[in-house]
Amino acid sequence: MAASLAGKTFFITGGASGMGLATKLAAVTDSVDVSYRSRILTQPVDVADRGAIKSFLEGTKRHFGRVDGIANIAGIGGRLIGTHPIWEIPTAEYDLVMDANARSVFNTLAEGLVPGFMETPGSIVNVGSMYSVRGFKNAAPYCGSKHAMIGLTKTAAIEAGEGGIRVNALLPGCVDTPLLRATFERFDEEPNQNTPIPRYGEPQEIANVIAYLLSSESSFVTGAVWNVDGGANA
């Protein structure tokens, strides 16, 4: 896979820890330029601010001369996930989660898919959750935001295909990240106990699939939803 990634530049949100960090490190290992100074350009960005995303994307292209792909990995569970039913969710909580998990993806797609901005062929990977295709008690904003990501992915794939850009979604299961550990401290039992592969996934296992979807080795894959969840949604 290194050959199909080498010399390319990728824009990654959520690259500070967990799956985003693993993806960034995998890319660097394969001699890739990653915007997330020399070969790595790092910057804190409010992903819910379309203007900030536009500015960082344009800055990435100026710095490296090109953008070949995007991985949208940033996301949050919210402050009330697992504790409040939908009728008790304040509008501010809903907005917070939707901004981080859905508006962020919209913003990156809207700016990254402007004709002529990305190199072609190019690829975008949007990282959701196993709850992108199922419900979860007391997690309405989170599930709603992750379901929205799939609709954005499929629509963008249809609209961008003729322009040479592929767009896919990856749905991780329970992956051993700081976000997951902090979230499930609120619950009495770990949700992965009944999965066919009875363990947490490792960030690198998710990063490997993201790298594949970003690479030319997946050149006929677009509009697809990849479950990488140890069988949780089997």
Characterise the protein shown here.
40% of the residues lie in helices and 14% in strands. The chain contains seven helices and seven strands. The chain is an alpha/beta fold. The radius of gyration is 17 Å and the shape is globular. Mean pLDDT is 87; it is low at 17-29. It has helices spanning 2-5, 18-29, 50-64, 91-112, 140-160, 178-184, 203-214; strands at residues 9-13, 33-35, 40-41, 69-72, 122-127, 165-172, 225-228. The relative contact order is 0.16. The chain has one domain (2-228): Rossmann fold. GO terms for molecular function: oxidoreductase activity. Belongs to the short-chain dehydrogenases/reductases (SDR) family. InterPro entries: NAD(P)-bd_dom_sf, Sc_DH/Rdtase_CS, SDR_fam. It holds the Pfam family adh_short_C2.
Set out the fold topology.
Blueprint: H1 2-5, E1 9-13, H2 18-29, E2 33-35, E3 40-41, H3 50-64, E4 69-72, H4 91-112, E5 122-127, H5 140-160, E6 165-172, H6 178-184, H7 203-214, E7 225-228
Parallel strand pairs: 1-2, 1-4, 2-3, 4-5, 5-6, 6-7
Features:
single chain; 234 residues; alpha/beta; seven-stranded parallel beta sheet; 7 strands; 40% helix; SDR_fam; NADP
CATH fold name, please? Rossmann fold
Q: What are the segments in which pLDDT stays under 50 over at least 5 consecutive residues?
A: 17-29
What would CATH call the homologous superfamily? NAD(P)-binding Rossmann-like Domain
Rg over C-alpha atoms, rounded to the nearest angstrom: 17 Å
Numbering strands along the chain, what is their spatial order in the largest sheet? 3-2-1-4-5-6-7
Order of helices and strands: HEHEEHEHEHEHHE
CATH architecture: 3-Layer(aba) Sandwich
The CATH C-level class name: Alpha Beta
Number of domains as seen in the coordinates: 1
Number of helices: 7
Looking at the structure, what is the overall shape?
Answer: globular
Helical content stands at 25-40%
Largest sheet composition: 7 strands, parallel
Distance between the termini: 27 Å
Secondary structure class reads alpha/beta
* Percent of residues in beta strands: 5-15%
